[in-house]
Amino acid sequence: MDQLSVLETRAIDAAIANDWQNAIELNRAILELESTNIGALLRLGFAYMQINRNDDAANFYRAALKIQPKNQLALDNLEKIEILEKTNGNGKRSERKKLDPNLFLDVPGKTRAVQLTNLGQKQHLADLYVGQELELRNKKRRLEVRTIEGNYVGTLPDDISKRLGFFLEHNSVYNVYIKEASLSRVLVFIKEVSKGQAVDGYVSFPNSNTLMHHPLHNPDSEGAEDLEDDDPKHEEHDDVWEDDSGMSSDDDDEKTELLHIRPVHDDDDSDE
């Protein structure tokens, strides 16, 4: 493996571990070897945003745009920085706590990364940051995700809303954190803290490779008797709970996508 590849691997690992200062140093070392390395420029922009040095982040995103003028990631984050400057977002984010490196540790059946739908206003999305704690609110059979201050972020997909809504009604407790946030995409990490006695025998997040009923066959019914367990012996499955994270099953690919460490090609024209 050549020196550039070694540095890139170490830079990615540092970002995954939320070691932003080390990530900055490693990506700068990459640029010393290859000044037009688009991945290093994007990673530096993202790393500087995580430590609230948005002016530095903007400089690296602009440098990336000189190489790839239509790079959507750079364009989105420059817009995000502009919104933060207008709303004084930096001041709000300056007191956040150091991120626990084990925060996003995956525990089968107890955690799930979920992409939100129906996203909120851009000024609220721009102020989100990795590791930020959020809360769930049950609204008309759908679970909303809001900041602790009450700002609306988005909603969980219908199937997960139904399942977790049922668990919440039976005194289960979940923590929710930002795993990825941009103006067009928000990924949250949901962790089971405890389950109510009535649903203690059922998993919060079944294996995504297993066909599952929703928790309730009849949305108007009450009680836990309609809840299906995670037993693969069930033969009939008329309602499938697929993995709604939208991420690849390959862990390395997922991590790199989550941390904005892959350049977006010029021909990637995503809709607003």
Concise overview:
With 272 residues, the protein is an alpha+beta fold. Helices cover 36% and strands 15% of the residues. The model is unreliable at 209-272 (pLDDT under 50).
What does this structure look like?
The structure is a single chain. With 272 residues, the protein is an alpha+beta fold. The chain contains nine helices and six strands, in the order ααααααβαβββαββα. The protein has a six-stranded antiparallel β-sheet. A hairpin with a 2-residue loop joins strand 2 and strand 3. Helix 3 runs antiparallel to helix 4. The protein is globular, with a radius of gyration of 20 Å. The two termini are 39 Å apart. The relative contact order is 0.13. The C terminus is likely disordered.
Helix and strand topology:
Elements: H1 3-16, H2 20-33, H3 38-50, H4 54-67, H5 72-86, H6 89-93, E1 111-115, H7 122-125, E2 133-139, E3 142-147, E4 152-155, H8 158-169, E5 173-181, E6 186-194, H9 251-258
Q: What is the global morphology?
A: globular
The beta-strand count equals 6
Unreliable stretches (pLDDT < 50, length at least 5) are 209-272
End-to-end distance, in Å? 39 Å
Name the descriptors:
alpha+beta; Serine Threonine Protein Phosphatase 5, Tetratricopeptide repeat; Alpha-Beta Plaits; 6 strands; 15% strand; disordered C terminus
